[in-house]
Write a structure and sequence with these properties.
6-stranded mixed β-sheet; single chain; Rossmann fold; 3-stranded antiparallel β-sheet; binds magnesium ion; 179 residues; binds inosinic acid
Length: 179
Amino acid sequence: MKETISVLIPEKKIIERTDEIATELSRKYAALRDGKPIVVIGVLKGSVMFMVDLIKRMSVPVELDFMVVSSYGDSTSSSGQLKIKKDLENSIQDKHVLLVEDIIDSGRTLQYLLKYLNDKHPASLTLCTLLDKPERREFDVKVDYVGFEIPDEFVIGYGLDYAQRYRNLPYIGVLSFEE
Ligand code: IMP
Ligand code: MG
């Protein structure tokens, strides 16, 4: 089958929106004035490109950490169990945590991660995702910052993959398959 890509969100729009979110986040964290560290946690690998663009534009000092979460079995269904394949390197207790994701689909991954992180008693926990497919939501997740709400289509690029491909495209595209 032939794979076709059509541009959904061009790079310029992603950068503009990332700028806005980074400004809001910087303002929010700067206002806290409690001296507690801010740690930005990226969920590998999809969030990497967004995370880098976001933190470059934040004017408060941040620490970085990463997690890898994967589901057992069929990755296209929402029934599988989640498993942490790479855990945090440092404690997040009493730190301000900003969790950065590429996309929220069913919400299963983030519901799991938010509970996992909350149990470690951070000073605060904020969730920021580049993309959100609200139509697909099965698990209730409170998202603080959303880059773009998108329709229920399979997207790739800007960190997002199809079978590990297309992650380095500088835009978000819709992937479709033709005979
Ligand atoms: P959830 O647990 O169902 O919310 O799924 C979230 C994860 O599924 C994301 O972190 C992505 O890795 C993957 N995913 C969901 N939708 C897409 C898509 O349209 N393109 C690429 N990956 C996706
Ligand atoms: Mg992901």
